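User:
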Amino acid sequence: MDIGVFIPIGNNGWLISKSSPQYMPTFELNKAIVRKAEEHGLDFALSMIKLKGFGGETEFWDHNLESFTLMAGLAAATDRIKLYASTPILALPPAIVARMAVTVDSIAPGRFGVNIVTGWAPGEYSQMGLWPGDEHFGNRYARAAEYVTVMKELWSEGVSDFKGEFYEMDDCVLSPRPENGHIDIVAAGQSGTGMRFAAEHADYSFILGSGVNTPLALSDSTATLMHEAKKTGRDVGALSLFMVIADETDEAARAKWKDYHDNADLAALAYMAGESATDKTADDSSTARTISLPEGAVNFNMGTLVGSYETVARMLDEVAEVSGTKGIMLVFDDFLEGIENFGTRIQPLMRSRPDHSTVA
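Assistant: Predicted structure:
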């Protein structure tokens, strides 16, 4: 089973808290994180794209790097780990992104993939005059399907004459192409429509864990993805997303988590809740609704594994046993310390990582 890291391209990572580590996103920080991940045998790193933050006392995500240029730099600074950049489909045309992806793939042959971001926060795009209107909430996956189709045609054939509702190509050409005519596509939608999109077009899809120390709570979502993939006859791997809060003892880890939760940046959370509520078409399983549920919004309601190194290792092994799971993507409260502890204290205890069972 693969293990990856969701690198902090935005300030303060994924904790909307006044007591969690406060830091700015820089190339040097992310290079150190990804190199340490590579050192400890992690398999992939992914960077999101965020174009406007939530404000608040912590200025949460008000400071963000750009995904493709960051990953191009990291491609040149690493040797083995796979790298995924995120494309905001409302801001970057598919033919340009196809060429950008080939460029990064030429830096790190066979080590690059593209994560599709359909866009659910109007404020990110309206600030640039790019928000197409609220009809986007209902047709964003139809747009994404055309987007991916254009890229795949260019990668495999070197030319596209695709004609759709959102994109029209006219003898659009691409050269050079990736060596095998393919670059992996990742999706992350949690709604039924998002799952169907992933099943039809992606190689991997992220599944949000949920709750605290409930590693199997994502089983139903993973089963839904597998069901949709079976209908298409495609092999789509589930990549589960969890935050790890680990320490020497369960009690010490729980104390850290409680402190982060008790010191949530309420103003930033209020902004996020407002943005999430703008999509009137969203169902309860959608990403926008899920991440802003009040009980766990301090870390986007992602599944959180809190405990000693032994406890976390055991729970990660439980996740690995969920049918359809091909990997787990991790975030940490403190990334450099977290990856070091994962590599030396957690991973050696994991049954699902037998090739990494000794301390690095």
